[in-house]
Amino acid sequence: MTNALIAAIPLAIVASTPLLLAVLGELVVERAGMINLGIEGMMLTAAMTAVVTAQLTHSVVLGFLGGIIGAAAVGALFGLFALRFAADQIVTGTAIVLLAQGLTGFVYRELQLFNQPVPRLEIDPIVPLAWIAIPIALALLLWRTRFGLRLRACGELPAAVTANGASVAVHRWTALAIESVLTGIAGAYLSLALSSGFAENMVAGRGFIALSIVIFGRWKFKGALLGTAVFGIAAAAQYAMQAGGHGVPFHLLLAVPYVVTLLILCGIAGRVRAPESLGKT
Amino acid sequence: MSRLFRRLRPPTPDSRLPRIAIAIGAALLSLVLLALSGIAFGHAPGELLSILISGSVGSKFALEGTLLKSVPLLLTGLSVAIAFRAGVWNIGGEGQFLAGALGAFLGARYGMAAALAASLIAGALWASIATAMRLWRNAPEVLTTILLNFIAIHLLGYAVNGPLQEASGKYPQSDVVAASLPAIGSSELHAGIVIAVVAAIGAWFLLYRTAEGLRLRASGFNRSAAKWAGVNVDAQLVRAMAISGSMAGLAGGIELLGVTHRLFERFAAGYGYAGIAVALLAQLHPLGTLASAFFFGALTTGAGELQRTAGISSTVATFGQAIVILAMIALTRRRNA
Predict the structure, then answer these.
(1) B190-239 pLDDT, tens per residue?
(2) Is A279 inside any structural domain?
(3) Would you call B151 and A255 a contact, using CB atoms and an 8 Å cutoff?
C-alpha cells in the first residue's frame, strides 16, 4: 500500500498540474479582490480551443496558444460583467460555466475534427514550470514589487489604491489576464497532454476544486502548492485503491476528495483571513 | 427603519412593465444568439427557430413535454429565488434535487404522501449541512453547496450501483419506485404540475404577504439593517436555506415519482443550475418563475427536438440559460445605474 502510494506520486504530480495552474491563477485573482467561479468554464473553453488550434496548425505550441486565447476570451467576459458592470461575481461565474458547457457541447457536435487524432505534447516543460518557476515568479511579483503590493491592496482596501493614484480596474484586469494565461495552459494541458483530445465536460469540476484549494492554502503560494499536492496524491491513492482493493465502493471513493475539501473549509475557515474585499463589487 | 421596509414592498403596478420588458428582452436575446450560433455552423436560422418552436409548443405532445420539463425548473427556480431573496448563496440546487429524489425513493414504500414529504425533508437537510457549516465554522455556503453537489452525485452513483440497484443487477439504475404521481386525464402530465404551481403561489404568499417573508427579504436586502431592526438574521439564514433546499428536493422527488420512476446516475441533468437562470429571469419573484420556468422548459424541450431532427447538440439549452443570466445582469444593472 505504502509502496503503491509512493510510486503514484510522480503520476499524481503530473495529473494535478492543470489543477495547480488553475489554483495559481485563482489565487492571484482572489488576492486582487475577485472570486471567479468561471475558471471551470475558462479551462473547458481552453481545452476545446487548444484542440481546434492544434488540429488546424498541426502544432502543439500553437495549440497551447489557442487555449490561452480561448481562456482569455472567457476571462474577458467575466471581467466585463464583474468589473465593468459591477455584477455579482458568483452569479456571473455560474453563468460563465453554463455558457462554456453549452457552447463547447454545441461546437463539439458541429466539428468533425474532434474525431481525428490530435498532436500531442512530446516533451513536457509544463510540469516544472507549473510546480517551480511560475509559483516563484508570481510570489515575487505579488510580494516583492510595487505592482504586487497594489494588486494585493485591491483585495484588501481598494480605496487606498485609488487614493494612491493607481487604478483598481487596471490591477484587477491584469490579475484576470494572468489567470487567463494560466487556465488557458491548464485547459490545453488537459486536452493535449493528459488526454488525447477534447471530451464534453472534461474539466470535471477541477475549477471548483481549485477554488477550495485556494482557501485551503490560505491565499498563499506555498499553501497552494501543498494543497494541490495533497489533492493530487489523494486522487492517485483513490485510483490505486480502486485498482488494488476489492469491496471498497468506487463511487464512495470518488466522493472522498469533496468531503475532505468540505472538512478543510470547516476546519480552518474560522482561522484563515481572506482578502478583506474579496468578491465585493 | 420604516423606510427600509417600505422599499421591500412588492413593486407597484406601474413599475412592473419595464421589469417584464427586460425579461422578455433577455429571453429574445438568447433565442437570437442561438440562431446566430446556428448560422456560424451552417444551419438555417429560420429552420432552427421553427424546430425549436414546433418542438416545444407546436403540438399537444410537444406542449406536454414542455410542461413536464417546466415542473422541476419551476421548483428549482423557486429554490434559488427564495435563497437569493434572503441573501443566501445556495448554488446547491443540483445536490438538493438528488437528495430529494433519494428521499422520495426511500419514502415511497410508505405511500405517495410519505414520498413527497421525504423529498422535502431530504432536500432541506442536505441544504442545512451548508447552513450548519456557515454558522458554526464560517464556511462560505457558495463553496460548500457546490461541493455538496458533487458529493450527492457520487452518493447517488453509489446507491444505484450498490444498495439501491435494480434486483436484476443489469444496469446502474434502481427498480421502479413504489409509488407514482397520478396522471392528469389521458395526457403525459402528472399531478406534480399542480404541486409545483401551488408551491409557487405559496412561496409568493410567504415572501410578500407574511411578516416572516418580510424578515426573510429584509435579511437579504441589508443584513445589518435587518439585525438592528430586531430580526434574528441567523434564524432567517437557517429557514431560507431549509425552504430553498426543500423546494429543490421536492423537484427531485416529483421528477422521480412523475417522470423517470427510476433513479440513475445522471438523474439531476442540470436542473439545479438551471434554477439560477429561471430565478434571475423571473427577477427573483415567485410568480415570475411560473413564466420563466415555462420558457426554459420550452427551450429544453425544443433543444431536444433540435438534437433529434437537426443533429444540433441539446446543450444549446444550457447556452440559452447562460445568455439569459448574463443578459439579465447587464440589463438590470444599466437600469439601476
Answers:
(1) 999 999 999 999 999 999 999 999 999 999 988 899 999 999 999 999 99
(2) no
(3) yes
Q: Is residue A277 part of a domain?
A: no
User: What distance in Å separates residue A118's CA from the closest CA in chain B?
Assistant: 22
Nearest to B312 by CA among B122, B37, B76: B37
**What single-letter amino acid sits at B191?**
A
Q: What is the CATH number of the domain that holds A220?
A: 1.10.3470.10
Q: Do residues B179 and B112 touch, judged by C-beta distance below 8 A? A: yes
pLDDT digits (tens, 9 = 90+) for B225-241: 999 999 999 999 999 99
Is domain B17-336 given the CATH code 1.10.20 in the classification? no
CB contact under 8 A, A90 and B144: no
The closest alpha carbon to B283, from B72, B9, B43, B11, belongs to B11
Closest-approach residue (CA) in chain B for A205: B150
Listed by start position, the domains of chain B span 17-336
Q: Which residues of A touch B329 (CB under 8 A)?
A: 81, 85, 87-88, 91-92, 95
For residues A78 and A194, the answer to whether their CB atoms sit within 8 Å is: no
Rounded to whole angstroms, the Cα distance separating A178 from A200 reads 26
Give tens-digit pLDDT for B159-193.
Answer: 998 899 999 888 889 999 999 999 988 888 999 99
CA gap B322, B330 in Å, rounded:
12
- For residue A235, give its domain range: 2-269
Instruction: Note whether residue A280 is domain-resident.
Output: no
Alpha-carbon distance B247 to B90, whole Å?
Answer: 12
3-state secondary structure B52-118: HHHHHHCCHHHHHHHHHHHHHHHHHHHHHHHHHHCCCCCCCHHHHHHHHHHHHHHHHHHCHHHHHHH
Distance CA B183, CA A182 (A): 52
Cell of A144: 516583492
Beta strands in A119-179 (DSSP E): none
ipTM greater than cut 0.95? no
C-alpha distance from residue A94 to each of A171, A261, B87, B146 (Å): 23, 20, 16, 11
Query: What is the DSSP code string of A57-117?
Result: HT-HHHHHHHHHHHHHHHHHHHHIIIIIS---HHHHHHHHHHHHHHHHHHHHHH-GGGGS-
Domain count along chain A: 1
Residues from chain A that touch B133, judged by Cβ atoms under 8 A, are 262, 265-266, 269
pTM, two decimals, is: 0.90
Instruction: Judge contact between B220 and B91, C-beta under 8 A.
Output: no
Q: Which of B132, B120, B112 is nearest to B234 (CA)?
A: B132
- Looking at residue B54, its amino acid is S
Q: Specify if A275 maps to a domain.
A: no
How far apart are the C-alpha atoms of A122 and A64, rounded to whole Å?
13
B321, closest residue in chain A (CA to CA): A98
Rounded to 5 degrees, what angle do the CA atoms A114, A64, A75 make?
95
